[in-house]
């Protein structure tokens, strides 16, 4: 009988690759470091506001990719449909934001 971790194909046992605890710990620590960098940039009052905003946006994008790739497992096979729907949602949201900004600042 095949277990959750093993399957039989043509009478040969194959082990499925599983993500180890080490990878999750590394990603978790990296997420915490990104959060601390963003917090330090805001807490330091003498930093240029434009630099702070750009840094926060970069940190946010990195956090999103880490969260989606490792915690939501979107990097794994079989997750193409959720990725397509999320990209569609990002496109629609981005279009709405650009149009709202254009509408507000239109002379």
TrEMBL record:
Lineage: superkingdom:
Bacteria
* Membrane disposition: Multi-pass membrane protein
Cross-referenced Pfam families, in alphabetical order? COX4_pro
Q: What biological-process terms (Gene Ontology) are attached?
A: aerobic electron transport chain; electron transport coupled proton transport
Question: Where is the chain membrane-spanning?
Answer: 25-45, 51-71, 83-105
Q: Where in the cell is it found?
A: Cell membrane
Protein name, UniProt field: Cytochrome C oxidase subunit IV
Q: Which organism is it from?
A: Paenibacillus wynnii
Q: What is the lineage of its organism?
A: Bacteria, Bacillati, Bacillota, Bacilli, Bacillales
